[in-house]
Amino acid sequence: MDRVPAQILIKCTNFAALKHSKQRRKDREQTPYINHPIGVAYILTEEADITDLDVIQAALLHDTVEDTNTTFEELEETFGSAVTNIVREVTDDKSLPKAERKLQQIEHAPHSSPKAKLVKLADKLYNLRDLNRCTPNGWTENRVQEYFQWSANVIKGLRGTNKKLECELDVLLKQRGVLEL
């Protein structure tokens, strides 16, 4: 029997929740990590008007390979190649040094598929809003500002994908002085 979109999304959310169950964000409240991928999916559906099921699933799963023991093969078996390919595009290679991973995000952004760009834009929007809400433990104001600047460089390569998301990002970047409108 074919699954309906609601069943697919609940399966995907449950998978992500199980994978991230022991993880916490780095904020003072140590919010459950699963709030992040759910928040990214929410931004896509509620703010960007995205209804593409593959994109929403990829948003829910976007950090599973990077931050848990999940493999691309497991994602492909469970959610198919379309979703897995989007996740693959937004996943950093953790075997590389952090500086190299950050540079690769900037270089890769313009060449990403439109679906991967949507996930990446929503991910950046969620993270920048979160940084405005609460500085992570151990972060200085300078580190927060550097993250905003680096994000602006990534976002530059994602532009032309979704005006609503880009406008929201522009407001945050302008507030931090990393974008002049």
Automatic annotation (TrEMBL):
Domain HD per the UniProt entry, residue ranges: 33-128
Cofactor(s) the protein needs: Mn(2+)
Signal peptide: none
MF-aspect GO terms: guanosine-3',5'-bis(diphosphate) 3'-diphosphatase activity; metal ion binding
Keywords: Hydrolase, Manganese, Metal-binding
CDD domains: HDc
Taxonomy, superkingdom: Eukaryota
Described function: ppGpp hydrolyzing enzyme involved in starvation response.
Family as reported in the entry's similarity comment: Belongs to the MESH1 family.
Protein name: Guanosine-3',5'-bis(diphosphate) 3'-pyrophosphohydrolase MESH1
Gene name tied to this protein: LOC106171167
